Amino acid sequence: QVQLVESGGGLVQPGGSLRLSCAASGFTLHDYAIGWFRQAPGKEREGFSCISSSDGSTYYVDSVKGRFTMSRDHGKNTVYLQLNSLKPEDTAVYYCATRRKRLCRSKADEYDYWGQGTQVTVSS
Questions:
Q1: CB atoms within 10 A of CB 103
Q2: Residues 120 and 6 sit within 8 Å (Cβ to Cβ)
Q3: 26, CA 20 to 30 Å: which among 49, 75, 88, 114?
Q4: What does the alpha-carbon distance between residue 18 and residue 10 come to, in Å, rounded to a whole number?
Q5: Spatial distance between the Cα atoms of 41 and 62, rounded to a whole number of angstroms
Q6: How far apart (Å, rounded) are the C-alpha atoms in residues 43 and 103?
């Protein structure tokens, strides 16, 4: 059974950092790509980062490029998202998801399994 569990969210001041984790079970990171999405109140779910399973290539949208970094630990079957230089507009519920394919896609409806989400709040 495929499961994803996020952790690591919280309240942080502007300019601060957080590290989110996405622990996977029921498959290995060699099998499927993992995407990160976020959803702010009143807004659509936005895909902003992904790591492919084939070669570990990572992709970022421009709004987070240079500030957010994805990595993975095969031994722990866990993907990490390092969030640096956080801004108030980064406030959202953050989700990881898998689409049971090796390659990344950006749209939420192309992903089959989702974690429960973790809240990130950036505020002074």
A1: 12
A2: no
A3: 49
A4: 8
A5: 21
A6: 26
Residue 101 in tokens:
């394919």
**pLDDT score for 52:** 92
Q: How far apart are CA 52 and CA 33, in angstroms?
A: 4
Strand pairing partners for 98? Answer: 34, 113
| Confidence at residue 100, expressed as pLDDT on a 0 to 100 scale | 85
pLDDT at residue 99 in the model: 87
DSSP-derived letter for residue 8 is: -
Q: What are phi and psi for residue 108, nearest 5 degrees? A: -60, -35
User: 51: how many CB neighbours lie within 10 A of its CB?
Assistant: 23
Token pair in block for residue 39: 């959803």
Question: Cα dist. 64→7, 42, 48, 90, 97 in Å?
Answer: 19, 20, 7, 9, 18
Determine the residue type at 89. E
- Tell me the backbone φ, ψ of residue 111, rounded to 5 degrees: -110, 140
Q: At residue 110, what are phi and psi to the nearest 5 degrees?
A: -95, 5
Contacts of 124 (CB under 8 A, 6+ apart): 13, 14
Q: Which residue type, as a one-letter code, is found at position 93? A: V
Q: Beta strands 58-60 and 3-7: pairing type? A: unpaired
